[in-house]
Every structure is written in C-alpha cells, then in structure tokens.
Amino acid sequence: MFTEESFENVVIEYLKELNYDYTHGSNLTRDNKEVLLLENLKQNLININKEIPQSTIDYAIKRIQNFETNDVFTNNRLFHKYLTEGIEITDFIDGKTVYHTVKLIDFDNIENNEFLVVNQLEIVEDDIKKIPDVIIYVNGIPLVCMELKSTSREEVSIEDAYKQLMNYKEVHIPTLFYYNAFLIISDGVHTKAGTITAPLDRFMDWKKINIEDEIIDTLHSYKNLDTLIYGMFDKKRFLDIIKNFILFIPKGKILAQYH
C-alpha cells in the first residue's frame, strides 16, 4: 500500500528512469504566483531558437504569460496552437519587417528539450495556495498535472483525484491549466489520462508500453501505473502525443484513445 508521499516518489522514480530531471518544488527559486518556470523557459527557448534575437524570444514569453481572456478552455486551445506550431512574431529590424516563428518545443531533436518533474509545487492564485502532487514541465512549461491518491486510504478513490483536479482548474488555480496538455489521475490501482474537458468516464488506461507488447489486463492490475508512465512518457512518444494526438472540437479537447 502506498501513502501519497511514497506514491509520488514511485512516479518520480519511474520518470527519472526515463531520464527526466527532478526537483522538489521547494527547491525552485520563483514567484509562487507564476506557474511557468521563467528562467528555464527563457534559457530553453534561446537554445531552441538560436537564430532568433533574444528580444523576440522575450516578446514570445510575454505572449504566453498574458492571455486576452480568463477562460481556461479558450486559453488552452490557443496555447496548444503555440505549442505545436510556434509563436509568430513580427519584428522591425533596420527598417525592414522580419517574421519569426519562436518554437516552444524542438520536436525534431528531442534531446534539445528540458524534461523536468516537480512535486509539491506551491501555487498561489487570488490568495489561495494549492500544491498539486506532480507536474511535468517541458522547457519550463507545465504540460502535465498528476493527482495521486493513496491506496492506503480505502475511502479515497480515483474519482477523488479527478474531482480535485477539476476544482484546481475551475476554482483555485485555473492559470496552471492554460498550459496543460493532459492530466493523469491515479489511486495506485487504476491510472488514467484525460484532458481538461474530459468527464471522468472519458479518462483512459494506457494498455501497453511498446507496440509489440501484449495488452495488459488493466482492470485488476498494479501494472496499470507503470504501463501508463513508461508508455506515455517515453520522451519521443510524449512529444508525439502532444503534437499529433490531441484534437480540439468547438467545446472540448480530445486525447486520442488507445487502440
């Protein structure tokens, strides 16, 4: 049986095995009202966009810090476009108009990106402090939020994990979800992935790690946790999911089901 703290540690160890960097939230120097890791973001964007002036990169960062609305879904849809297509910036240099596309992720060179797992990160919004269990940052951007419930508490279920994330999104720390690619919920036995608009019954299992593997029985299996982590968060597959397997419809966001 996992306590919630030990459960977090198991997930972190899995991700470290996949060569993610790790830090505890308390070790980050940051404004706790800011969900982006701004120093990481700037340095990574400079590295990815070597031919683009730093002033243009600074402007791109301001673009993703300042949305025109407070609507989570509207901002998430716009940010996903920035994430997958880049941010188009118009510069005026030496009297000429120059067009730049600032990439937030280097999809062509996976190792040119920073993958960082953070747990127990304090986030304050409207004087309310919340601490999500685990956040996965890519290049300083919080792309995945995980809520992990303890298997040692019989009264707590995966539904509680889902409800907590929805409360974070809708009430307490909505800004975190402007940038979210998808969510992970788990009670140790069941581990599922879904989007910010998905009802609980549309959160899905991940049924095998590699294409050649046999499909596991996820209904009664602790292997569900490691299968999802190793299956979805292999770096190449993770970026492929973000780029090619997330779809927006007028009132919803869809993460491709496993087939």
Helical/strand content category: alpha+beta
Tally of individual helices? 7
Mean pLDDT: 91
Number of strands: 12
Overall shape: it is globular
The low-confidence runs, each spanning 5 or more residues with pLDDT under 50, are none
Strand order of the largest sheet: 1-4-7-8-9-10
Beta-strand percentage? Answer: 15-25%
Structure description:
- It is a single chain.
- With 259 residues, the protein is α+β, with helices and mostly antiparallel strands.
- Helix content is 34%, strand content 23%.
- It contains 7 helices and 12 strands.
- The protein has a 6-stranded mixed sheet with strand order 1-4-7-8-9-10, sandwiched between helices.
- β9 (182-186) and β10 (191-194) form a beta hairpin.
- α2 (38-48) crosses α3.
- The longest helix has 15 residues, at 158-172.
- It is globular and about 65 Å long.
- The relative contact order is 0.16.
Quick overview:
By secondary structure, the protein is of the alpha+beta class. The protein has helices spanning 4-17, 38-48, 54-65, 72-85, 158-172, 223-233, 235-244; strands spanning 21-24, 87-93, 96-102, 115-119, 123-125, 128-130, 134-138, 141-148, 182-186, 191-194, 246-249, 252-255.
